[in-house]
Amino acid sequence: LVQSLDGVFNFVFGCDSTLYYTVLDDKLRAHKVLRHCIGQPQEHDIELYVEKDRECFVDITRTKDKQFHIINSSTLDSSEVRVFPTKRVHKQLSPVDGVPEAHLQLLRPRQRGVEYFVDHHDGEFVILTNSPSDDSENMPITNPGPFRLMQAPSTSPQSDSWTEMLRVGDEDRIEDVEIFRNYIMVSIKRQGRPAVIIHNRTLRTNGEIQLPYGGECVVRPEPNPQFDSSTVRLGFSSPIHLDSVVEYDMSTLRPSRSWESTPLHINPNDYVIHHELAPSKGAQIPMTLIHHKSVSLSKTPPTLIRVYGAYGVSLEPEFRLEDIPLLRRGWVIALAHVRGGGELGREWYAGGKGHNKINSVEDLLSCARFLLEKGWATSGKLAVTGVSAGGLTVAAALNSAPEYFRAASLHVPFVDPLSAMLSPDLPLTSAETAEWGDPIANAADYNAIRRYSPYDNISKMVTARLPPSILVTAGGQDQRVSVWQPAKWVARLRDRGRYSELVNADLEAVEPRLLFIARMDEGHFHSNESDSHDQYGGFIRAHSLRNAFFTREVAASRNIL
């Protein structure tokens, strides 16, 4: 039997030749869950759940033990989960059922600031949540605490039945959980560094896996679909180690098998990774520095700062192919773990979102200032790069202190957040209010965005004696950051500042360069949206250009007269 379904965003198989799937609305938001009987016409499919809140995205999954389906309706900072058994609901539903939602069981009503994720094991739901122990479920949580691992009986899974299942250290922040019949794998961050705890459910004991590379790595759980397994597969990466996979015996905490590879012509022992703290307003900002061991920081080598700092996403010290050519040429790569990211938990994220977004910018400047004041970098050899929301942070920092940097690269930068958030007809705008605020409904949100918006704040860049050279790239098929955003920012800088459209081919650059490249067939991630064979071509082309731009700009001398 060959059958195709139209408009499917994601899906999960049910029992007895059924499957459940989600579809998108006109704002690219997964908003509806439908049930399909394989072999039947799609027009007979039943709407199981419809989410009317335009800020919410809907997902359909299945618990690892295959006992329940999970419908998660989530925003950027909240969750609402409904479950139904895999072996019963699909038999009860029929096209004449009046209220199919009556078969769904809600675990906890939505509360702003509270997230939770659900799995099932041996008659109990396992819940990973940041809900406070004393909350009333009514008031928004503005400063959510760390995630906790809870449990509740399948017969009474509502939040008033949740009890703590596993306690981690006060300095530990739970990142991920993997459930097995006899074990629970808990991936944590401890003061920003990774660790993996194995909880033995039979013995009620905790053990910790010894991580490779001296712990200087990123840990990502690999697919572990076997519920009855006593082994777990973890993926590892570091700035100087390609992705590897190690299988651990959870009873002994020892590796049993591994799949590793080494980058061509790279000896990891030739490189150094170390950590620094840069003082900023109200916080100490972690930095990860990577360079060849022959590089002396006191000789101010060329340095590239990378930053993101949004959505609670951590800027991980992972292997990045695009950085290897710079490392080989004696560059220092500095990862700035600014507020707004998730490196130090949800509090760190909250410290760089909404009205606190300016902290991300201040933190980046503090990292640059730290390198300059330590004598490890000079402004003539300091570059900075950011992608998407990271590009916003870079662009805002350039205007605050253009004298710090020699060059900057911004890929699909979100440089006009005010116009975007004032345009509800744009895809994803409604869903982004939890991150940036709602300038339409709230004057304080408007003023907060206006304060740091790169497009609306260019005064220092256009009057600076020596503004940095900038490379801006965008994609015409980008559905996250419309191409007009970077285009209008570049146009304003060229119109009001010292930047010229003409590019001087001479290495002795006397004017700052502002290059704008828009590839109209590409999307948000360098790839050609209509050509599956160009998956890596766009990546290689974009980063080759970026590295050439940086090395050329740092090599070029300034006209300081």
TrEMBL record:
Ranges of residues in domain Peptidase S9 prolyl oligopeptidase catalytic: 319-503
E.C. number: 3.4.21.-
Domain Peptidase S9A N-terminal: 16-252
InterPro entries in the record: AB_hydrolase_fold, Pept_S9A_N, Peptidase_S9_cat, Peptidase_S9A, Serine_Peptidase_S9A
UniProt KW keywords: Hydrolase, Protease, Serine protease
Pfam families xref list: Peptidase_S9, Peptidase_S9_N
Enzyme class: hydrolase
Entry function: Serine peptidase whose precise substrate specificity remains unclear. Does not cleave peptides after a arginine or lysine residue. Regulates trans-Golgi network morphology and sorting by regulating the membrane binding of the AP-1 complex. May play a role in the regulation of synaptic vesicle exocytosis.
PANTHER family xrefs: PROLYL ENDOPEPTIDASE-LIKE, PROTEASE FAMILY S9A OLIGOPEPTIDASE
Name used for this protein in its record: Prolyl endopeptidase
